[in-house]
Fold this sequence. Notes:
Blueprint: H1 2-7, H2 10-19, H3 24-40, H4 43-57, H5 64-80, H6 84-97, H7 104-118, H8 121-139, E1 141-142, E2 145-146, H9 154-167, H10 170-184, H11 188-195, H12 200-209, E3 213-214, H13 215-230, E4 236-239, E5 252-254, E6 257-261, E7 263-264, H14 272-289, E8 293-294, H15 300-321, H16 325-332, H17 349-361, H18 370-383, H19 390-404, E9 431-432, E10 463-469, E11 474-486, H20 493-501, H21 503-516, E12 520-527, E13 532-533, H22 535-546, E14 556-562, E15 566-573, H23 589-607, E16 610-618, E17 624-630, H24 638-645, H25 655-666, E18 673-680, H26 692-708, E19 711-717, H27 726-730, E20 734-736, H28 743-754
Parallel strand pairs: 4-6, 8-9, 11-17, 15-16, 15-18, 18-19, 19-20
Antiparallel strand pairs: 1-2, 3-7, 5-6, 10-11, 12-14, 13-14, 16-17
Amino acid sequence: xxxxxxxxxxxxxxxxxxxxxxxxxxxxxxxxxxxxxxxxxxxxxxxxxxxxxxxxxxxxxxxxxxxxxxxxxxxxxxxxxxxxxxxxxxxxxxxxxxxxxxxxxxxxxxxxxxxxxxxxxxxxxxxxxxxxxxxxxxxxxxxxxxxxxxxxxxxxxxxxxxxxxxxxxxxxxxxxxxxxxxxxxxxxxxxxxxxxxxxxxxxxxxxxxxxxxxxxxxxxxxxxxxxxxxxxxxxxxxxxxxxxxxxxxxxxxxxxxxxxxxxxxxxxxxxxxxxxxxxxxxxxxxxxxxxxxxxxxxxxxxxxxxxxxxxxxxxxxxxxxxxxxxxxxxxxxxxxxxxxxxxxxxxxxxxxxxxxxxxxxxxxxxxxxxxxxxxxxxxxxxxxxxxxxxxxxxxxxxxxxxxxxxxxxxxxxxxxxxxxxxxxxxxxxxxxxxxxxxxxxxxxxxxxxxxxxxxxxxxxxxxxxxxxxxxxxxxxxxxxxxxxxxxxxxxxxxxxxxxxxxxxxxxxxxxxxxxxxxxxxxxxxxxxxxxxxxxxxxxxxxxxxxxxxxxxxxxxxxxxxxxxxxxxxxxxxxxxxxxxxxxxxxxxxxxxxxxxxxxxxxxxxxxxxxxxxxxxxxxxxxxxxxxxxxxxxxxxxxxxxxxxxxxxxxxxxxxxxxxxxxxxxxxxxxxxxxxxxxxxxxxxxxxxxxxxxxxxxxxxxxxxxxxxxxxxxxxxxxxxxxxxxxxxxxxxxxxxxxxxxxxxxxxxxxxxxxxx
Length: 756
């Protein structure tokens, strides 16, 4: 032991102690593994790496899983991201607790090679889901027995996975695996032959699935294309088209890279490599010539029209620079059928815009519609001017919608035939939302909440969150679907009356709030621009100038307030139980909550802290509703008051998913202190959950996640029996208000105490 300590550096010894592993085989290679891990992982990644390795070492499966994990995990993390470390651990644990424990080592051994091929965390997760699906389908029933037998072909599949992913896209890999499952799930011998590549079917199906142009095989060539023709460069991040059955993903770009499919088939006489060139050229043109636009007050139809005209503009400019692009664009752009404009009871907005797009691209396209003809002419007239801008296209597009919009456009039956231009991106890069915290990278689907006719949008695409299963000790991935929208509006005067009702309390609170307001100012010197002249620096600069030296131009100073930097999220439980009368009071719990929230909002506004208000309820894991009542950038005004005035309660309380979604916005705020207040009248529950502890433990896990992200969560509970569960979730971070009628008084006071 003395020799071991001597040959290790202190930090390596620290990690060894944390690993807490007694296997001599692991001890012999640990130093070398740590050298590579330190080169590939961040400090946080190293901690997770050691914790997961220690977990695998305690599964009772010998030293080999730990050894392989220590060797392969750094490679996986460096290729697809450190979040994959947890997935390696979780799936290995899943195999260990299953009859397929012998597949643990092959899974870990090939994980590095698979990650090198897949390149992104999302594809790596989808690869694991393909394996999980195979485990479930081929272990359940083999020759009439249930779960006593492992999947016969899984170890062989894992050994062949790197070879398969060199030849196939992830979609092709998935199809190859599903063929083996469907035809050999009840024939163990044939299943082994198939997944070990000893059967003719395995080779035949692989040849069938070997189609298209794989991005991984042409990444360097496409990167050279971007650098050489467009003087542009970014990471090319693949995604698979096989795992989203309802809505196929589209190319797009963001701060993390350019997202394009992992494979393109030859299509309409265009080779796969040229389809990649068309998609990249289109996005490169956007990156060079498009400008962002504020779209909070544009309807979905208006945004769709702006996208079409702006897509046509950047392609027009690209073809002027590189005329050879026209041939590819023409071949890939669909030719819409004008005769379909005669259809009734069908939304034809996509058809009209596709006609405009095709007419702009193709001088030989024959069409008769007068509106399309006029706006195509307006497009070319605008492009003949010098320095066309995105906003110029927006004005034409908005006029087009105003001129051509029909009542039938709002019908759910939408015409799509020959209208989708699949090489174009989804244009998320064009939009700016005034409510900045409400539109992040993975929430591009959350479109603005106001239409031109002031109707509020409903039914936005869901955001999926994991949920903690305390029985299995792992997350259920993408388990909860959260749908968000603006809360409906009511009469703002109702809130003003509530505030007037508590006028005396507000006066007392104001005296307390004045003590919280930042009082002191700090001088910031050496500024090139500022509110006043810094005489000392100015005189010194003048002396330098007179003496022939270079004077310091930073002769101004400014001031900043030295005080609070707090962001608050108030999350309201809007479940059915709020409609009950409060004990000893004529008001419902909902009405008292409404008064308390109004007072709290007024109080936070008085202090000047950034704050948002949202409510939630749930109807199974598939339908968690999240209502925005006030955004961080919205002022405390009649618009917000009108939403609070319309508060309604219904359904159940799936708290964990709502907290994670609220944290998504709170994390985006720049603040020294981030506080999430959860106001609820009962324990987490939902109609699709029989285990009372399941959602309690998930909420507890959500609190831990928030804490790791620097968010302090605090619960105000109105349930007199909350002692039975609230401490399990929030630890000591809660208050139980037994007399609900005192909530309007207690809630602002709690806020003041928590943010001092």
